[in-house]
Amino acid sequence: MLALGLAVAMATPLAANAADYVIDTQGAHASINFKVSHLGYSFIKGRFNKFEGEFSYDPANVTASSVEVTVDTTSLDSNHAERDKHIRSGDFIDAGKYSEAVFKSTKVVDKGDGKLEIMGDLTLHGETKAITIDADFIGQGKDPWGGERAGFMGTTRLELADFNIPVMGTSSYVDMELHVEGKKK
């Protein structure tokens, strides 16, 4: 269910002009959110409260960008403690056994007009699968405290069976929405 977080943050510089950023989770300027169908009647939305990551971004050479994010799966929060306990259990994501999900980009494609396709490997529930995050560059510049920041948002759909996670009711997938703001190192 996560990833990505899985995912729109970008790490490990691949080019000399790329700027390196740390995802600003301490300032609550980033989030990894999920949405899953509830019995086919409505949706449950939630988030992962603990994650960290870095990204590298060069607007002049977007393909040299990269991202790595680690999500604490025990921090899953759908605003309902009993449901969260069940989703974290061995019935679904088994956060006790698989306490981390990791996304590492392998390729970034510049789709033009601030749109990116971030391909990478997501390790979740003991399985590693290739996923693609559709991302948008929001902007970058100086902040009021003398630093520099860059922001992105992204979406992806994870098929639960790809990660050997049991289907939750009628839903075979979870939609992820990622918001990332990084502070330049």
UniProtKB/TrEMBL annotation:
On the tree of life, the source organism's domain of life is Bacteria
Q: Does the keyword Kinase apply?
A: no
Q: What does the UniProt keyword field contain?
A: Signal
Task: Please indicate if the UniProt record lists Signal as a keyword.
Answer: yes
Which InterPro entries does the UniProt entry name for this protein? Lipid/polyisoprenoid-bd_YceI, TTHA0802/YceI-like_sf
Signal peptide: which range, if any? 1-18
Q: Show where the Lipid/polyisoprenoid-binding YceI-like domain sits.
A: 20-183
Q: Which NCBIfam families match?
A: PRK03757.1
Name of the molecule in the record = Lipid/polyisoprenoid-binding YceI-like domain-containing protein
